[in-house]
Design a protein that fits this description.
single chain, 395 residues, 2 domains, elongated, Cyt_b561_bac/Ni-Hgenase
């Protein structure tokens, strides 16, 4: 049994590649459709994530195998068609083959780019990391890649359906060796005439992919309206915040995921000459609608977690205390209808009238009744690390 193709038959390597990729693709498609169709709720979210993890993991295997298959095919004869005189059928079959080759690359690649551009949810199980070089964490990139993955996966599904229908037609109605050539390496009964290179099916396939790309571009979400209140200047106090970040990290499916609030303001009074005792006061107000948490932003804002419709803002009111152990902001965090004491140690550097501050605090989401339906840590961890950094100038 030859490893290489001959002018009348597919060799063992081509056939092994074909059936392995077929198996992976035919598993990845239903996994993607089923996982995407599951409405997220505390009962279903773990299952949705597991199916997506499997989908992505098998999809990447299909991608790497597909690339190897294409490299192999480049150095091979293509066995000549069995019915070279059936021009329309031949064009359609070759168009579908080109679409399948293009999809083998473009479908998993767009899925992978989408995954790499957002934070969190349903990790890839290969030890390849969750990001991709040259792919920034960006909602715009993620939206475009998700649209392309959706469109291209539909092109793939249509091509696979036509491809399988064609193979069955040859086997059941024409009763020829088309399927047996790919299944068992059977050689065509007689060598048909050699064919010249035919460009039209390739150009048609590229045209269809071009139209798919245009459709994905037109579906891409435009620039998001700034729902977040911009960082506002202090109305009281003696320091004005110029810039800053408010991030938090929580485990999702056991993997740390970082989100942030873009809209918050801080009113700070601080006297650096006090070295022991209360040196100032801070009131931080956070616009919870400004939350960004990768692919689960909307779910996090919804009733199961922050429930921003009922609790649009959070407030941290604290004394700034200096002492031998360093500086802490000690006060109360009002969030999601709960008032919980919070201590946030921070470091401060003052140069003339400019100050930079960084601080971290560890919270427990259960203290605030956030994600109460998620009673264990399998889906969302209990501990939430909050990190704040800001630069301020003296008023
Ligand atoms: C049950 C599913 C499938 C069956 C029965 C099947 C059957 C076949 C057959 C009989 C051929 C040979 C066609 C010929 O001689 O002209 C073929 C070729 C091909 N199949 Fe499939 N196939 C299946 C799934 C897939 C899938 C999922 C892919 C997706 C990537 C795929 C990609 C290809 C490609 C690219 C060729 C052309 C090979 C070449 O000439 O370079 N097939 N398939
Ligand atoms: C050959 C490989 C792949 C195939 C055939 C495939 C196919 C699909 C299909 C059919 C869907 C459902 C779309 C719908 O609901 O209509 C889907 C969704 C999805 N796939 Fe894939 N996929 C593949 C590889 C990948 C890879 C490698 C990744 C990531 C690493 C990925 C990530 C996703 C994601 C995140 C979604 C959900 C999209 C959304 O929420 O908008 N896929 N895929």
């Amino acid at each position: 049994m030859p490893a290489q193709n001959t002018p009348t038959s597919f060799g063992l390597v081509t056939r092994t590649f074909h059936w392995l990729t077929a198996l992976l693709i035919l598993t990845a498609i239903p996994l993607g459709l089923i996982a995407n169709g599951i409405e997220p709720s505390p009962e279903t979210i773990a299952r949705k994530a597991q199916l997506f993890s499997l989908h992505k993991t098998l999809g990447i295997a299909a991608f790497l195998l597909g690339l190897s298959r294409i490299l192999w095919a480049l150095g091979q004869h293509r066995p000549v068609p069995l019915h070279p005189h059936r021009r329309v059928e031949l064009t359609l079959a070759e168009l579908v083959h080109w679409l399948l080759y293009l999809s083998l690359v473009m479908v998993p690649l767009t899925g992978w780019v989408h995954h790499a551009a957002v934070d969190g949810f349903a990790p890839i199980l290969w030890p390849l990391g969750q990001g991709l070089p040259f792919v920034p964490k960006s909602e715009a990139v993620a939206g475009l890649a998700a649209g392309a993955h959706w469109v291209f996966s539909k092109l793939l599904i249509a091509s696979v359906a036509l491809h399988i229908a064609g193979a069955l037609k040859h086997h059941l109605f024409d009763r020829d060796a088309t399927l047996a050539r790919m299944a068992f390496g059977t050689a065509a009964p007689e060598a048909p005439l050699p064919q010249g290179k035919r460009l039209a099916p390739l150009l048609l396939a590229l045209g269809l992919y071009g139209a798919g790309t245009a459709l994905a571009l037109s579906m891409a979400p435009g620039p998001q309206p700034a729902s977040a209140a911009p960082l506002t200047a202090a109305t009281g106090g003696n320091w004005q915040v110029q810039s800053g970040t408010l991030d938090f990290t929580v485990a999702q499916m056991g993997a740390p995921v970082t989100g942030n609030f873009a809209g918050w303001s801080a009113e700070i009074s601080y006297d650096e000459t006090v070295t022991d005792g209360i040196a100032g006061k801070v009131v931080v107000t956070v616009d919870l609608a400004s939350l960004a948490l990768g692919s689960v932003t909307d779910q996090a804002k919804g009733p199961e977690f922050f429930d921003i419709a009922a609790h649009p803002a959070a407030t941290f009111t604290a004394d700034l205390k200096a002492g031998p152990q360093g500086l802490v902001a000690e006060g109360t965090l009002d969030l999601h209808g709960a008032s919980v004491p919070v201590t946030l140690p921070f470091t401060l550097e003052i140069a003339g009238d400019s100050a930079t501050m960084t601080g971290t605090a560890s919270l427990d989401r259960r203290d605030f009744g956030i994600g109460a339906g998620y009673g264990d840590e399998e889906t969302v961890g209990f501990a939430v690390e909050v990190k704040v950094a800001l630069a301020a100038t003296r008023l």
